[in-house]
């Protein structure tokens, strides 16, 4: 057996640190390079659906257990109340299939409908153009998740701190901004802006929306997929102490994930963290831009300062410090997630808008599949491990690219649905909208990840066999 390979991971965000945890469990040598001088993430809410829960169990049992201890409870949240009026549905009602809500009409493993089986409330959709007081406003419709676990959320920056504590000491190298990659020799050589170099058998880019690895992979900044494009939407966002949110909109509404629909704009709120004095309400206000391009030319920042006047104009409220441009790869998808011994995963491979609440979950799926393939490969290496890694990357690409790129496209469509920009949307079509949303969320959440992993491993074995015969 040849010496196991050493991998270079680029980007110590949520995806990179989670992959490091997975590789540590598998006993795979690696170094994690991060351009920032220390671990850093934006202080926003991060949601994980049932698919992410399954992925975490595959990645590392301890990781899964830690997440369940810190995330928003995966039940109906709050004190068992899911709406605000005379048709209030209790936690018990919803879990027993009573009242309004969690039937089989959505199909494909997703809840929804009027008469169905058990489900966990995911979100309530409301008419954001209504004049009814927010404490009294009835949901236009609800979407449920018919799985053993529902949707959980964490504070992004705090979750990264938790992940970093699970990465072995000495694995992360901070202050390493990637400048270039050369894979022409026996080893892959990484060059950093501080003038240093490093070697590895392969590189995995986990460096997010503004990925340098992706740019190198496609052959330069002007090639297809090198840069993310402006989605035509921007957002304001903030985190509100839960107690203040309760005072403003009531506990019933603050404790439930809610989406206010409207013409060309929508607002999303959901609780973050465990109930208690530190719990927060994440608020994101989305706007469809009248401009086709983002005004900032700074490649390292997709944000602009937000003024009170901006927010008042868009939403008749203030309190936001920045305007966030939403960028993705919808218009310029990667033709492949790998080239030789360079691979991209997560947002680096399939940057998406957040309108399905599944971007982070798909990143976890990527990590689960890749780590299982790498573990399979290192347990039975025949011949040059470099060739084995290329087979791993090819199997990963075949397993993940179609699904990951579906999310990018579907997320854009979901936003236009929430903002009544598509045919058969708006107040007269709430039932049609509910069915559409449920079917798409079912694709996000209903994946049989164990089956996906088994199929990817079988594909890897076929590719390795072909290499040996060749």
Automatic annotation (TrEMBL):
<dbReference type="InterPro" id="IPR036188">
    <property type="entry name" value="FAD/NAD-bd_sf"/>
</dbReference>
<comment type="similarity">
    <text>Belongs to the paxM FAD-dependent monooxygenase family.</text>
</comment>
<feature type="region of interest" description="Disordered">
    <location>
        <begin position="78"/>
        <end position="115"/>
    </location>
</feature>
<keyword id="KW-0274">FAD</keyword>
<dbReference type="InterPro" id="IPR051104">
    <property type="entry name" value="FAD_monoxygenase"/>
</dbReference>
<keyword id="KW-0285">Flavoprotein</keyword>
<feature type="domain" description="FAD-binding">
    <location>
        <begin position="9"/>
        <end position="375"/>
    </location>
</feature>
<dbReference type="GO" id="GO:0044550">
    <property type="term" value="P:secondary metabolite biosynthetic process"/>
</dbReference>
<dbReference type="GO" id="GO:0016491">
    <property type="term" value="F:oxidoreductase activity"/>
</dbReference>
<dbReference type="GO" id="GO:0071949">
    <property type="term" value="F:FAD binding"/>
</dbReference>
<feature type="compositionally biased region" description="Low complexity">
    <location>
        <begin position="82"/>
        <end position="91"/>
    </location>
</feature>
<dbReference type="InterPro" id="IPR002938">
    <property type="entry name" value="FAD-bd"/>
</dbReference>
<keyword id="KW-0560">Oxidoreductase</keyword>
<protein>
    <recommendedName>
        <fullName>FAD-binding domain-containing protein</fullName>
    </recommendedName>
</protein>
<dbReference type="Pfam" id="PF01494">
    <property type="entry name" value="FAD_binding_3"/>
</dbReference>
């Amino acid at each position: 057996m040849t010496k196991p390979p050493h991998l270079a991971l680029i980007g110590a965000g949520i995806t990179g640190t989670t992959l490091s945890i997975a590789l540590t469990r598998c006993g795979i040598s690696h170094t994690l390079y991060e351009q920032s001088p220390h671990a850093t993430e934006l202080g926003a809410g991060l949601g994980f659906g049932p698919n992410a829960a399954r992925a975490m169990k595959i990645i590392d049992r301890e990781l899964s257990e830690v997440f369940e201890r810190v995330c928003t409870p995966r039940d109906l949240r709050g004190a068992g109340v899911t709406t605000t009026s005379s048709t209030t549905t209790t936690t018990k009602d919803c879990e027993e299939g009573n009242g309004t809500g969690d039937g089989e009409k959505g199909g494909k493993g997703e809840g929804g409908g009027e008469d169905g089986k058990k489900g966990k409330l995911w979100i309530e959709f409301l008419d954001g153009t209504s004049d009814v007081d927010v404490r009294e406003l009835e949901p236009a419709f609800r979407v449920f998740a018919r799985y053993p676990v529902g949707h959980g959320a964490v504070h992004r920056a705090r979750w990264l701190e938790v992940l970093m504590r699970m990465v072995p000491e000495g694995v992360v190298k901070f202050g390493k901004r990637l400048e270039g990659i050369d894979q022409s020799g026996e080893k892959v050589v990484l060059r950093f802006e501080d003038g240093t170099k490093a070697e590895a058998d392969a590189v995995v880019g986990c460096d997010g929306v503004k990925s340098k690895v992706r740019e190198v992979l496609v052959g330069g900044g002007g090639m297809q997929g090198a840069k993310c494009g402006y989605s035509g939407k921007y957002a304001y966002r903030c985190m509100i102490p839960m107690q203040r949110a309760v005072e403003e909109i009531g506990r019933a509404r603050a404790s439930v994930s809610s989406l206010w629909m409207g013409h060309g704009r929508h607002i999303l709120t959901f609780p973050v963290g465990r109930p208690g004095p530190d719990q927060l309400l994440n608020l994101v206000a989305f706007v469809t831009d009248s401009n086709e391009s983002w005004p900032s030319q700074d490649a390292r920042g997709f944000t602009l300062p937000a003024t009170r006047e901006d927010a008042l104009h868009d939403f008749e409220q203030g309190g936001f410090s920045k305007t966030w441009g939403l960028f993705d790869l919808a218009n310029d998808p990667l033709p492949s997630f790998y080239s030789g011994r360079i691979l991209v995963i997560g947002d680096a491979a399939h940057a998406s808008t957040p309108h399905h609440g599944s971007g982070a979950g798909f990143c976890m799926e990527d990590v689960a599949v890749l780590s299982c393939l790498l573990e399979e490969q290192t347990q039975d290496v025949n011949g040059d491990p470099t060739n084995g890694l290329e087979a791993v990357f090819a199997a990963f690409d075949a397993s993940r690219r179609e699904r990951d790129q579906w999310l990018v496209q579907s997320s854009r469509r979901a936003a236009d649905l929430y903002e009544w920009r598509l045919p058969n949307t708006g107040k007269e079509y709430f039932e049609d909208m509910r069915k559409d949303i449920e079917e798409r969320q079912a694709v996000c959440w209903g994946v049989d990840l164990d089956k996906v992993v088994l199929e990817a491993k079988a594909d890897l074995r076929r590719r390795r066999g072909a290499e040996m015969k060749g």
